[in-house]
């Protein structure tokens, strides 16, 4: 099983889920910190993956996962997309990301990770002020570093909605009911357009599903894997 994280996340994203997911085979953590494009990220992850595997993509990792399928469709047995989208950034979102990256690149001070507002927005309204979750997110970003953050902010995410119908493997689309970064409609679009897709919605969580509701997310994934031959 290949696990792909989101922006400024590393293997720590999955730490509460590892014990259960490991029962479905060795876990391989995709490194999305070193490349500047989806295509390069996908190629690197494919070079480190086994010949056939289940692919899990969270947030930005969902974009990379679908690019991996485009590059090597015969290698992906099952696909799981968590809190992600097939839509490109709006011009406003793109402008904010570019401005943030330029500001960080020109800064000579220590890198402190995403701002407090950005971290809070990635969590549900109920979890936004949770100090433990805030610390986990910030620690991952500090391990990743400023250069990786800037690369990820500047990376183009082209819409691949028109290509979703080409995904032939069984696919599980998982959305968070309290996600303030990705809408339920974005998950529903993927569910409707991917031929062999299942949609699950997990309550009491914002965008950071693997951290906010790891037990519920793990149960959802394991149930689907058990019912879906690889």
From TrEMBL:
Q: Which GO terms describe its molecular function?
A: hydrolase activity
SUPFAM superfamilies per UniProt: alpha/beta-Hydrolases
Q: Is the keyword Hydrolase in the record?
A: yes
Q: Which InterPro entries match?
A: AB_hydrolase_1, AB_hydrolase_fold, AB_hydrolase_sf
Name the keywords, alphabetized: Hydrolase
Return any one Pfam family short name. Abhydrolase_1
> Which PANTHER family does the record associate with it?
AB HYDROLASE-1 DOMAIN-CONTAINING PROTEIN, MONOACYLGLYCEROL LIPASE
Q: Write down the species.
A: Erwinia mallotivora
Cross-referenced Gene3D superfamilies, in alphabetical order? alpha/beta hydrolase
Q: Which residues are in the AB hydrolase-1 domain?
A: 51-213
Can you say what this protein is called?
Alpha/beta hydrolase
Species lineage, top-down?
Answer: Bacteria, Pseudomonadati, Pseudomonadota, Gammaproteobacteria, Enterobacterales
